[in-house]
Design goal:
The protein is α/β, with parallel strands linked by helices. The protein contains 14 helices and 10 strands.
């Protein structure tokens, strides 16, 4: 077996490509169900965020599976597919990449906290759709633990800049003083709420909010003493704004040359700044050809000044050390899985025989009370544990080595075990782990 990840992110693909691979939870589940019918990929998890889409897989035969996955990607991307947008990492490199993602070291803005919840959500979807087993369950739980540990033991998230706060910093860089600016926030989700809070913190006096569902726009506007704008009136109001920040979940452009362009002459030459932090994008890039309109998308936020960049780079070095340590611990944990079927069978057989003998003994000693029976049961459990300790240590020590098959056959012959381990599931080793 081989553990692998195939994906693209903000470093390898521009936003116009990433948005084609930005999948809803329902679409993620649908893709995983499709993979479930492909025997060569017994385990898989699909992580899809605004800045990355990554498919983590346990593969039986990489030579057959990778071409299949690439053909699936071509189908999803259509004519825009280009292989250079994607990276493919295996074994230890795959695990290290996942741990760096979970620790936000690979994020557009290092230290942001949203990625860990996104990984949890992706793992949950994979699990409820029957696409995780021993390997991914172990690795994903460890990745979540590593992400938490990095945030706890380092200050990498201390005063970190989020996407929403970076958008506001960009607005300040353009306008300077926000106190007199006409600001329109399109969208009423979590990102829009964070953006509105940052705008107020940086001096904005009034914020207008528009959303397809007016009630949600009203709730957000009330929270920040702003004004809710009905969606049908949003375009006319946009003509009076200085800055429009968009963050909706729409699968299509919200602001286009057709619906916004005809209203722009009313501005009498006043510049209009559009900051699009949505993926897929909310703003039609053709609007950039209109005089007086400037568009910034999520890729432009990386250049926003980070006041704590040097500080977080130092903390990132500490985080990398934590990741290396956790990879070592994970290797040690996974190493014995190759011998686990035999170890499980040996333990189960010994426990079965112990209980069988114990049952006969209790029949012959009816005078024993429950307390006495528990003492004898515990004593036999301890004997079983002591008897199995050395064989278990020996099997664990040779797991993943050249001696593994010899020991496995020897134990099966000595104790009359099923060498294939089929009764207990196939815990095959991961090739290319190193």
């Amino acid at each position: 077996m081989q553990l692998t990840v195939l994906g693209l992110n903000h470093r390898t693909a521009p936003v116009e490509i990433r948005e084609r691979f930005n999948f809803s939870n329902d679409r993620v589940a649908s893709i995983l169900r499709r993979l479930r019918n492909y025997d060569n990929i017994p385990e898989a998890m699909l992580l899809s965020t605004c800045n990355r889409t990554e498919l983590y897989m346990v593969i039986e035969n990489p030579h057959e599976a990778i071409p299949f996955i690439k053909s699936l990607l071509k189908h999803l991307a259509g004519e825009h597919y280009q292989s250079e947008y994607f990276y493919n990492l295996n074994g230890t490199n795959c695990v290290k990449h996942l741990f760096r993602v979970a620790s936000s070291l690979d994020s557009l803005i290092v230290g942001e906290g949203q990625i860990l919840s996104q990984i949890k959500n992706a793992y949950h979807i994979a699990r409820i759709n029957g696409m995780t087993d021993t390997i991914l369950n172990t690795i994903m739980n460890k990745a979540i633990a590593v992400g938490k540990r990095v945030r706890t033991e380092t200050k990498i998230a201390y005063s970190s800049v989020s996407v929403s706060s970076a958008a506001v910093e960009l607005a300040i860089k353009i306008l300077g003083d926000l106190s007199k600016a006409q600001i329109l926030v399109v969208g009423a989700g979590h990102m829009s709420e964070l953006t509105a809070q940052h705008l107020l913190d940086k001096g904005a006096q009034t914020i207008c909010v528009s959303n397809r569902h007016y009630e949600r726009a009203q709730d957000l506007a009330d929270k920040f003493h702003g004004t809710a704008i009905p969606y049908r009136a949003m375009f006319e109001h946009a003509a009076d704004a200085d800055i429009i920040i968009t963050s909706t979940g729409a699968p299509h452009y919200v602001l286009t040359a057709e619906n916004l362009g005809p209203l722009l002459p009313k501005r009498n030459g006043r510049p209009l700044i559009l900051i699009d932090i949505a993926v897929p994008r909310d703003v039609d890039p053709r609007l950039a050809d209109v005089d007086g309109v400037t568009i910034y998308n999520i890729d432009d936020l990386e250049d926003v000044v980070d006041t704590n960049k040097n500080f977080r780079e130092k903390e990132a070095h500490v985080a990398e050390q934590i990741i290396s340590e956790e990879i070592g611990a994970l290797k040690e944990r996974l190493r014995y899985y190759t011998m686990r079927p035999v170890m499980v069978q040996l333990h189960d057989k010994m426990n079965f025989l112990r209980q069988k003998v114990l049952k006969k003994a209790f029949i012959k000693m009816p005078e024993l009370n429950d307390h006495e029976k528990r003492i004898i049961d515990l004593m036999t459990q301890r004997l079983e544990h002591k008897f199995l300790r050395e064989p278990m240590k020996a099997m664990n020590a040779v797991a993943g080595t050249a001696e593994e098959e010899r020991y496995k056959k020897m134990m099966c012959d000595l104790f009359l075990l099923n060498e294939t381990g089929e009764e207990f599931g196939d815990e095959s080793k991961i090739d290319d782990w190193d």
